[in-house]
Amino acid sequence: MIAKPRWLRRDIVSSAKIDETRKFLRDSSVNTVCETANCPNLCECFGRGVATFIILGDTCTRGCKFCAVDEGIPQAPDPDEPSKVYEAAKKLNLNYIVITSVTRDDLPDGGAAHYASTVGYLREKLSGVKIEVLVPDFKGRSGHIDKVCGSGIDVFAHNLDTVKRLHKTVKPKSDYLLSLAVLGKARDISRGGILTKSGLMLGLGETEDEVVSTMKDLRWAGCDIITIGQYLKPAPDRTDEREFISPKMFEKYEKIAYNLGFTRVSSGPFVRSSYHSTC
């Protein structure tokens, strides 16, 4: 195990705002990726009164080696979840809402209809908000992707997570080329009407050339926005970090990404998919 450098050390803080945000979320009976995935930015985001909602339960059907979410047999989707997400978003006075989920291979549509119901409910109840969804791959099925793209979203996100060589090691039940195809299909279905977004985790053993090649693949698929962050092992039984990437290297990747044509780039040690999200 390698020691964390100073730039990856964060103090655990407490404040009335963090406690208030946590209470709002729990009173609304919603799950957040902030808590479920042990996000290192929880205190900062809760302190600003923002959170990323995770729908379709808290149990995943895949069990990727980098993720803190438990693998198992999920419960049926909660039909009241759209209204619960709405109540939480309203209490937090959010003008930009990010929704993600566990992967639900047990459902015929992978949960696409539940995404659409949640987004539709928010569109009906809230005016002037922007909505971003971070979705699983839906096994690449165009009909499911179409259902989500047509629900009223502003940003369609699907994370590639790592480079092609490491993909099957880190995400054994997923496929690199399929994920690229999902982003391409979303772009084609919306005819450019929504933004597409993806994220990479670094420090898993990838090379600089592989990172740049992956960014080029994402641009080829029509991806508009990219997030690049440091992988941090979220639990003892997950994949170990192989390297801690320096802040200067993240700055270099940011410049490369903009030169490749990404319209928005967030690159840094603590960057996560929904960190400071905006379109």
What are the main properties of this structure?
38% helix, TIM Barrel, globular, alpha/beta, two-stranded parallel sheet, 279 residues
Describe it.
With 279 residues, the chain is of the alpha/beta class. It has one domain: Aldolase class I (TIM Barrel, Alpha-Beta Barrel), CATH 3.20.20. The protein is built from ten helices and ten strands. It has an eight-stranded mixed β-sheet with strand order 1-2-5-6-7-8-9-10. Helix 9 (208-220) links the parallel strand 8 (195-202) and strand 9 (225-230). Helix 4 (81-92) crosses helix 5 (112-125) and helix 6 crosses helix 8. The longest helix has 15 residues, at 176-190. The N and C termini lie far apart (38 Å).
Summarize the structure.
With 279 residues, the chain is an alpha/beta fold. The chain is built from 10 helices and 10 strands.
List the helices and strands and how they pair.
Blueprint lengths: L15 H12 L3 E2 H4 L5 H6 L4 E4 L3 E2 L9 E2 L9 H12 L3 E6 L10 H14 L4 E5 L7 H8 L5 E3 L6 H7 L5 H15 L4 E8 L5 H13 L4 E6 L16 H14 L3 E4 L12
Parallel strand pairs: 2-5, 3-4, 5-6, 6-7, 7-8, 8-9, 9-10
Antiparallel strand pairs: 1-2
Helix pairs in contact: 4-5, 5-6, 6-8, 9-10
What percentage of amino acids are in beta strands?
15-25%
Superfamily (CATH H level) name: Aldolase class I
The parts where pLDDT drops under 50 for at least 5 residues are none
Find the count of extended strands (DSSP E, 2+ residues): 10
